[in-house]
Amino acid sequence: MRVLITSGGTTEKIDSVRGITNFATGTLGKLLAEQFLAANHTVILLAGLTALVPDAHPKLTIIKISDVTSLISNITKWTPLSDVCVHTMAVSDYKPVYMTDLDTVKQTPNLTDLLSKHNLEHKISSQQDYQVLFLKKTPKVIAMIKDLNPTIILIGFKLMVDVPTEQLIQTARQSLMTNKADYILANDLNTISETQHLGLLVSQHDIMEVQSKHDIAALIVSKSEETYDNYHDCRNR
């Protein structure tokens, strides 16, 4: 199989020296890539700029991803060529539009006028005590994947914080339908640490519990292979 993995996080620039990012390390994406490679599959890893990545391997291609625009460009390129997509990347939900000082905002009668402005300087001045940053929502990348390749096996991730298990499962099932995914790995930030990573791999028919990042990677590799084999068996009948 050719497996496309997204890993780590994206960074949206405010100016040449500042950006909005997140704390994703790419640890799970690295483990997934390593286990797919160990199973003799070809891996294309789209990794955030600071994400952990595996050692060089003849069947591994690593492409560094800066922001959502570069992620979409590479998803568009590689999804039609892949059999499996494991979308673990923590994608920025918003990107900066314009940043200005608080006094300017107060003096602007119609705030929507500021949404058409752009910061032209390489480094925004830090002389003012308060700055206001306008953000715009980014596209949902996972929602694009099945449209680009309807037969791809899609595994998505859903991270929530301090919610009941029933809500975690319900949200995962909603994501399955919304994004036409085959599996969603649902997890709660409160159950993730250096020594454990509790999660639920949810499909239309099953809910499978996992206890660690290694277990998650092993289960995703196994279920990807199983789903791929079943799909091709059905097509060959």
UniProtKB/TrEMBL annotation:
<dbReference type="InterPro" id="IPR007085">
    <property type="entry name" value="DNA/pantothenate-metab_flavo_C"/>
</dbReference>
<dbReference type="Pfam" id="PF04127">
    <property type="entry name" value="DFP"/>
</dbReference>
<dbReference type="InterPro" id="IPR011848">
    <property type="entry name" value="CoaB_strep"/>
</dbReference>
<feature type="domain" description="DNA/pantothenate metabolism flavoprotein C-terminal">
    <location>
        <begin position="110"/>
        <end position="223"/>
    </location>
</feature>
<dbReference type="InterPro" id="IPR035929">
    <property type="entry name" value="CoaB-like_sf"/>
</dbReference>
<keyword id="KW-0436">Ligase</keyword>
<feature type="domain" description="DNA/pantothenate metabolism flavoprotein C-terminal">
    <location>
        <begin position="2"/>
        <end position="107"/>
    </location>
</feature>
<protein>
    <submittedName>
        <fullName>Phosphopantothenate--cysteine ligase</fullName>
    </submittedName>
</protein>
<dbReference type="GO" id="GO:0016874">
    <property type="term" value="F:ligase activity"/>
</dbReference>
